[in-house]
């Protein structure tokens, strides 16, 4: 299954009413663009996230493969493009709570692919019609839709991280302990797993090693929340600025409030830790890390609420 994002600004109402997507094959100068011809890659069952005025109002499911089709009469009024075009018939699923893309832009930028991605470096929509969406970004958008709308859209979730597989994995993990998970436990763990793995992927696009000591083997790196998952709201949980990539030792110290950081990035070490343990855990008062403006906001919370002075 593939995912796309379509900027329907001029034609959303007409296309939604008609239940289709349409793009011209070329403009009046005979030029063609990937953001039109990529329509040909949309196949039956693919998911297309809509954007209209910066918001996702609908999610579309392609009802059939893309076909060559003349400009539908519904679009005649717009008088913008040549006649020959590509068309995808699609089911429009309207969201009760629209998603404002820019509210999640940091994470979206970290998760979107390199090629034909929908947004540019500063988070503005690229000029054009249809763009590609990575599986990671699609899963992230599904997660947001679910959080904001309160209903599950599991049927669209990519096969790679299906809930069923995750439950099987959890049951395998806990099998040795004969633990029976009820539905609530399962929901919680699924959310945490999907969230954590997306969160880690997003962070790994920005950082590649422990922020403190430089351990760079991704198998050992932990995407640590600065403001913990349990006290964060849904947006904060998936905001990459609320993350620090840390090795297990440093994650453990940070997570439990034995270390924190000043606004200028200098480390704060709890007086509870004696000299010996500081050496063993590889920390000293000269450590300083880079913090973005948004990370500093979360770090302020950590310093005030979590740090054991
Ligand atoms: Zn480390």
Automatic annotation (TrEMBL):
A molecular function GO annotation: endonuclease activity
Keywords noted in UniProt: Endonuclease, Hydrolase, Nuclease
Residues covered by the HNH nuclease domain: 210-262
InterPro entries, A to Z: HNH_nuc
Protein name: HNH endonuclease
Organism this protein belongs to: Halobacillus litoralis
């Amino acid at each position: 299954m593939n995912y796309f994002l379509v900027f329907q600004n001029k034609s959303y109402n007409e296309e939604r009413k008609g239940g289709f997507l349409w793009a011209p094959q070329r403009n009046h100068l005979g030029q063609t663009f990937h953001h039109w011809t990529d329509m040909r890659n949309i196949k039956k069952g693919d998911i297309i996230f809509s954007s209209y005025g910066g918001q996702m109002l609908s999610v579309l499911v392609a009802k059939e493969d893309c076909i060559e089709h003349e400009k539908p009469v519904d679009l005649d009024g717009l008088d913008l493009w040549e006649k020959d075009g590509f068309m995808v018939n699609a089911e429009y699923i309207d969201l009760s709570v629209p998603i404002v893309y820019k509210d999640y832009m940091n994470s979206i930028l970290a998760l979107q692919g390199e090629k034909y991605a929908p947004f540019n470096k500063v988070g503005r929509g690229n000029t054009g019609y249809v763009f590609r969406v990575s599986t990671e970004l699609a899963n992230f958008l599904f997660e947001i839709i679910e959080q904001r709308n309160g209903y599950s859209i599991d049927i669209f979730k990519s096969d790679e991280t299906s809930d069923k597989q995750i439950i099987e994995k959890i049951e395998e993990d806990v099998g040795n302990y004969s633990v029976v998970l009820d539905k609530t436990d399962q929901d919680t763990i699924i959310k945490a797993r999907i969230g954590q793995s997306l969160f880690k992927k997003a962070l790994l696009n920005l950082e590649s090693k422990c922020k403190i000591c430089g351990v760079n083997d991704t198998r050992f790196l932990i995407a640590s929340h600065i403001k913990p998952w349990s006290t964060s709201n849904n947006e904060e949980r998936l905001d990459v600025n609320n993350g620090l990539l840390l090795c297990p030792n440093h994650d453990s110290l940070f997570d439990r409030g034995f270390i924190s950081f000043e606004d200028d990035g200098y480390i704060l070490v709890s007086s509870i830790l004696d000299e010996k343990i500081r050496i063993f855990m590889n920390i000293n008062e000269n450590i300083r890390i880079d913090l973005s403006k948004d990370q500093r906001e979360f770090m302020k919370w950590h310093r005030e609420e979590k740090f054991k002075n």
